[in-house]
C-alpha cells in the first residue's frame, strides 16, 4: 500500500526517467508562439498577469527597478505554476514535489544573492546581521541567529514548495484508492470530495508559486 501510494512521486512510474523530467519544460510549449515574437502583449491575459506581477515585484525590489530586474522572478513564478498545475493531471509527473527540483531553483538564486551582496555591499550585509537597537550583550547571539536563518533560506523555500505539493497529491491518492471498496452512494460523495480537493489543490498550486517568487524577490531586495 505504501509503495503504491508514494509511486506517484516516482519519476519512472509512468514513463521513462528522462521523459518525465523533461516534462518540466512543457510549459514553454503551452505559451502561444506570439508571446515570444510579439512586443505588444498588453491585451492578453498572460500579459496582464505579468504586468501585475511586475508592479508587485517592482515594489518589493525597489522603485528604481526596471522590468529586467523583475523578469527572473516572473519567469520563476510561471515556471513553477505550469509544473504545479500539470502535476494535477492524471499520469503526469509532478516535478515540483521533488526536492531535487525545488532545491535546484532555490539554492542558485540564494547563492547568487549572497555572493552579490557580500562582494558589492559588504557593510550593508554586515548591518543586516545585527538588527537596529540590539543590546551589545545580545549582539553575538543575534549574529548567530541571523546567520543560521540566512543559511537555511534555500532549504525552507525548497521544502515549503515540495511539502505542499506532496501533501495535496497524497490526500487525492488516498481518497481515490478507497473508491473500489465503496458503494454507489458513497462513490458520489467521494466524487464531489475529489472535485473540491482538486479545486483546492489548483489554488494551492497558484499560491505556492506566488509565495516562492515573492520570497525570492524579498531575499534579493536585502542585498541591494
From TrEMBL:
Membrane-protein topology: Multi-pass membrane protein
GO cellular component, one term: proton-transporting ATP synthase complex
Family to which the UniProt record says this protein belongs: Belongs to the ATPase A chain family.
InterPro entries linked to this entry: ATP_synth_F0_asu, ATP_synth_F0_asu_AS, ATP_synth_F0_asu_bact/mt, F0_ATP_A_sf
GO molecular function: proton-transporting ATP synthase activity, rotational mechanism
Keyword tags: ATP synthesis, CF(0), Hydrogen ion transport, Ion transport, Membrane, Mitochondrion, Transmembrane, Transmembrane helix, Transport
Keyword check for Transmembrane: yes
SUPFAM superfamilies linked to this entry: F1F0 ATP synthase subunit A
Gene expressing this chain: ATP6
Pfam families (alphabetical): ATP-synt_A (PF00119)
Subcellular location: Membrane; Mitochondrion inner membrane
Name this protein carries in UniProt: ATP synthase subunit a
PROSITE patterns attached to this UniProt entry: ATPASE_A
NCBIfam families named among the record's database cross-references: ATP_synt_6_or_A (TIGR01131)
UniProt source species: Daphnia galeata
Membrane spanning residue stretches: 21-38, 71-93, 100-119, 125-145, 157-175, 195-219
CDD domains for this protein: ATP-synt_Fo_a_6 (cd00310)
Amino acid at each position: 500500500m505504501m509503495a503504491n501510494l508514494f509511486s506517484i512521486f516516482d519519476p519512472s512510474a509512468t514513463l521513462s526517467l528522462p521523459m518525465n523530467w523533461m516534462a518540466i519544460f512543457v510549459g514553454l510549449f503551452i505559451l502561444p508562439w506570439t508571446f515570444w515574437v510579439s512586443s505588444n502583449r498588453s491585451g492578453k491575459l498572460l500579459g496582464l498577469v505579468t504586468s501585475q506581477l511586475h508592479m508587485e515585484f517592482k515594489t518589493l525590489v525597489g522603485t528604481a527597478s526596471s522590468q529586467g530586474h523583475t523578469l527572473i522572478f516572473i519567469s520563476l513564478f510561471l515556471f513553477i505554476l505550469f509544473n504545479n498545475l500539470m502535476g494535477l493531471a492524471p499520469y503526469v509527473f509532478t516535478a515540483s514535489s521533488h526536492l531535487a527540483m525545488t532545491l535546484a531553483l532555490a539554492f542558485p538564486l540564494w547563492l547568487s544573492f549572497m555572493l552579490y551582496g557580500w562582494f558589492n555591499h559588504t557593510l550593508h550585509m554586515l548591518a543586516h546581521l545585527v538588527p537596529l537597537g540590539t543590546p551589545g550583550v545580545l549582539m553575538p547571539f543575534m549574529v548567530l541567529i541571523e546567520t543560521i536563518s540566512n543559511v537555511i533560506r534555500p532549504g525552507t523555500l525548497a521544502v515549503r514548495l515540495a511539502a505542499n505539493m506532496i501533501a495535496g497529491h497524497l490526500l487525492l491518492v488516498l481518497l481515490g484508492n478507497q473508491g473500489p471498496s465503496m458503494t454507489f452512494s458513497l462513490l458520489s460523495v467521494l466524487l464531489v470530495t475529489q472535485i473540491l480537493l482538486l479545486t483546492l489543490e489548483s489554488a494551492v498550486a497558484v499560491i505556492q508559486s506566488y509565495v516562492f517568487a515573492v520570497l525570492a524577490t524579498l531575499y534579493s531586495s536585502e542585498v541591494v
